[in-house]
Amino acid sequence: MRRIGTLGRVALVLALALPLGAGRLTAPPPAAASDNGLSIRPAMGWSSWSFVRRWPTEAKIKAQADALVSSGLKDKGYIHVNLDDFYQKCDANGFVVDSHGRWTVDETAFPSGIKALADYIHSKGLKFGFYVTPGIAKNAVTRNTPIEGTPYRARDIADTTRQEKNYNCKNMYYIDYGKPGSQEFVNSWARQFADWGVDYLKIDGVGSHDIPDVRAWDRALRATGRPITYALSNNLAIADAPTWRQLANSWRTQGDVECYCGPGPNGSGYPLTDWGHITSRFTSAANWQPYAGPGGWNDLDSLQIGNGDQVGLTSDQRRSHLTLWAMAASPLLLGTDLTALNATDKAMLTNERLIAVNQDGVAARRIVNAGAQQVWSKREANGDHIIALFNTGTSGNQTVSVTWAQAGLSGPAAITDLWSGRSGGTVSDSYSATLRPGETRLIRAAPRSGGTVRHEAENGTWTAGSTVDSNHGGFSGTGFVNTPNATGAYVEWSVESATARDAPVTLRYANGTADGRPMDLSVNGSVVVANRPFNGTGAWTTWADATLTVPLKAGTNTVRVTATTAGGAPNLDFLDRG
Ligand code: GCU
Ligand code: CA
Fold first, then answer.
1. What's the CATH class of domain 82-115+127-252?
2. Closest Cα to atom 11, ligand 1: which residue?
3. Could you identify the atom of ligand 1 that is nearest to the CA of residue 485?
4. 236-256 pLDDT, tens per residue?
5. 197 with 118: CB under 8 angstroms?
6. What 3-state DSSP class applies to 23?
7. 212: CB partners within 8 A, 6+ apart
8. What are the two backbone dihedrals, phi and then psi, of residue 165, each rounded to the nearest 5 degrees?
9. How many Å apart are CA 451 and CA 210, to the nearest integer?
10. d(C-alpha 259, C-alpha 273), whole Å
11. For 291, which DSSP code?
12. Hey, whose CA ends up nearest to atom 6 of ligand 1?
């Protein structure tokens, strides 16, 4: 059976405690995540496939690493630099192998070798990712190369009746994991990667028939003792999702996001993708949602943001692209050319509010799916709800709406537009946005705990000599409190709060005089707002609201307003706690 990394297990349990403790809308992810202790949050960085494609070189990879740092993306958390396919050397029979049957590196493209490249990337404070596919190369079998540290050879473990999927040099045979030496072969390859300084390994061309390879690579990576984030690719079967989750840190939920519709060889070059390749991910992300969680993520594929419209998406579509990836808690691996970042896209990628949504460790559920209208929602550990509204159409505006009931929210919520950072005020029970084709709106909805609670003045306590009057109309409840005209006159309420927080309180008052009636506002005996002016409202029947923010502790709070001048308090109708 599999080794259990105790340290990793502890880290994972700690990380799980937050999102799961408060989970209500989002079902907890399956308990058995990869227990290697890695990728507690979705990976962020860059991968060579979309832009560099079939022609990676050490100079190109270094240039992208440099740009990751100089652009400031690294400081926002984009730290992985992943070299994808086509670093290998091939001949007419497939991969050229080393003396132990492992792929060799094309020394024309990588003259300094992979270790030197990894060292360079590490020197920048970044992490190095690498690429492999299942099986053993035909050239290893032909040469019958020895398996490092064992008496076995390639022919002892290869199943030459079956060819593995490989997109590049092909000619990969299945490994028969019933044969002695099979695990040791994969171990020797993983050891080489660990020695080179690999921090992230993508194993591509993986299907359900490759579960023995996926298991062997998981064992092998752990056995190296080096923390190596383990990513599976691509178009994995959802029927085996619990297995992917148990063995790996991420798994591609679909085929490539690239359109292969560029003018270069094999459809390379701009455009890198198109809107159809983004919109097709909404349904798969919805279907895979239950399987994402700390330690294991649904990988929606590379993020095609960085080079403006030429990637094949409008700026509205690019914002929707990042919004969906953030909501789904997908890895954020940029596919674009970071040496040519455009300002609009850089602003998108460095938006910390968006990154926080991606890194909250919660995969959103789709709650509206009606034609071009989509609404996604998730609840974060602190009780905030994140809601994304989309118009996925290509023509015509759409007014997309969601009710708090649909999102699992109760009572009013304070809204923040996460793309702009602007406050949307407090909204009682629903939200809607009119969106251009391809546009999104992403909001954080912070519930006002328990909604607004009204405390009538006539139900509070007050200075001796005050009266509850009803002679000036327009008040709420059965009357208002009229205090004596004296310094120190007060009205006091008991105010509950579920949590310790800064809460808005609204005082309704009337002052029919021309003079101010300033008051102190105290919470639990401490003045938190001093001498707040309550100026004349024009008439005793004209009521005005003053909203102040006050710190409340969890539980019962004593909130008091006290006149600071000889005029006493204005007439007081109520206090609303938001
Ligand atoms: C008037 C008014 C009262 C008010 C008082 C005051 O008497 O009718 O409602 O409280 O003035 O000056 O405080
Ligand atoms: Ca009075």
1. alpha beta
2. 512
3. 13
4. 999 999 999 999 999 999 999
5. yes
6. coil
7. 175, 177
8. -75, 130
9. 52
10. 4
11. G
12. 485
Determine the pLDDT at residue 377.
Answer: 97
Active-site residue 469, yes or no? no
**Ligand 1 pocket by Cβ (under 6 Å):** 469, 472, 482, 485, 513, 540, 568, 571
What local confidence, expressed as pLDDT, does residue 451 receive? Answer: 64
Ligand 1, from 472, 511, 571, 573: best to mutate by most atoms within 8 Å of Cβ? 571
Q: Which residues pair with 521 in a beta bridge?
A: 529, 561
φ/ψ (deg, to 5) at 523? -125, 125
Ligand 1: which of 509, 534, 540 to mutate, judged by most atoms within 8 Å of the beta carbon?
540
What is the C-alpha separation between 230 and 254, in angstroms, rounded? 17
Structure tokens at 71: 């652009």
- Rounded-to-integer distance, Cα 237 and Cα 206, Å: 10
Q: Which atom of ligand 1 is nearest to the CA of 480?
A: 9
Q: Between 211-224 and 182-196, two packed helices, what is the crossing angle to 10 degrees?
A: 50
Ligand 2 centroid distance, CA of 338 (Å): 68
Output the pLDDT for position 96.
Answer: 98
Among protein residues, the one with the nearest Cα to ligand 1's atom 7 is 482
Domain ranges of the chain: 82-115+127-252, 365-447, 460-577
Query: Tell me, which fold does domain 365-447 have in CATH?
Result: Immunoglobulin-like (2.60.40)
Q: Decide if pLDDT at 12 tops 90.
A: no
Residue 338 has pLDDT above 90, yes or no: yes
According to CATH, the topology of domain 460-577 is Jelly Rolls (2.60.120)
**Nearest atom, ligand 1, residue 484 CA:** 13
The single residue listed with the structure tokens 């120190």 is 488
Whether 156 is a known active-site residue: answer: no
Instruction: Concatenate the DSSP letters of all residues of 339-369 into one string.
Output: GG--HHHHHHHT-HHHHHHHTTS-PPEEEEE
pLDDT level of residue 33 (50, 70, 90 thresholds)? low
Contact present, 294 and 40 (Cβ < 8 Å): yes
Give CA–CA dist 528/502, Å, rounded: 11
